[in-house]
Amino acid sequence: MLKYLDSVELAKQYFLIIGRHLDLERKQADVANAIVYKKGDTLYLIDTGALPDFRQILLDKCALLQPVNRLILVNTHGHIDHVGNNIVIDQIEAFEKYHYISAHDLTLMQNNRNYFIQNFKNIMMFMAKGFNPEKRVDELLKFFEPVHANTQHLNVLESLPSHNITIGHIYWSGWKFDEGLYVLRSEGHTRGHVIVYLPEISHIHMGDETNGYCNLFHDCDHLKSLESHTKVLSMLNEGSIKSMTDGHSFQVYNQEQAKIKLEELINAHYVYENTLRGLLLKHSKGLTFKEIQYHLDRSEQLKSLAKTGNPNPIFNTLMVLSKLRDFGILPEGENLEKSLFKFQGFHSNRFND
Prior knowledge:
InterPro entries: Metallo-B-lactamas, RibonucZ/Hydroxyglut_hydro
CATH class of the largest domain: Alpha Beta
Protein name: Metallo-beta-lactamase superfamily protein
Distance between the termini: 45 Å
Largest sheet: 7 strands, mixed
Number of domains: 2
Number of strands: 14
Helix content: 25-40%
Structural class: alpha/beta
Strand order of the largest sheet: 1-2-3-4-5-6-7
Oligomer: single chain
Pfam family, one: Lactamase_B
């Protein structure tokens, strides 16, 4: 069983550094997995996690891979648990240093506080009395200190020439770093999310696109996450991928394990979506948010689904609201706590059977 700060050798000179889950009771930050590897004279870093103890493991692994001429750091997205140790780029010896993130996640990376306050304000009326978005976000972000996300080597991926990247028979839009790294646009978990493919070892790192079957945040895109899942599953079936990792599963998936993981996520996406849809159609006059949560919590179909990455009341509330928004449903009425959620223009529909 892999534990926090362990490292796994994916192949010669390729390492996965193991993070950990968020623990609210212990006031412990979640730390995303990171990948460190060397190809030719280039050292690659995929995400940097958070916290000083994790940064030290990154430095230790990078030291083992010296000497290098070039260092490339790519953040899969801007969430604090993936970017907190970006300053590590200044502590590693290399003649050339580059740091990349999507332009769409740049503001997020530089100001996680505003991002999460916006999301928490969206759920404020549906949380326990006294829930304060600013205070709650500040409490959470303290778990991650010290945070060093911005670097002097930063550029946006969009400043690079884009490519139509073909892997097997699957097409992606993204960026190539020679044959050492393919950065693939997924844009589901966040607006600028990317996943990465390491062609030398046929390995894919999904970042947070495989966190669960339903996204949480205001800038997510459910369909794009689903599209990434289906494309990667097709690549696995073709044999273009031999192994898979992600930001918050503390293991390395072989081909068969990765197929099972993605098939479960794809199935769960439709089960969750159709369970919520069926509930709203059954109660066509509308339900309050608390009523929706009540029914979902008691759904036998949903109980059979795999748990999401960080199950807790805040994330569960964000998930329900995110899927309602994906349906085009906004609450009706001035009092959000008592307002009703329902499909607009609803009428008898024979295709609902």
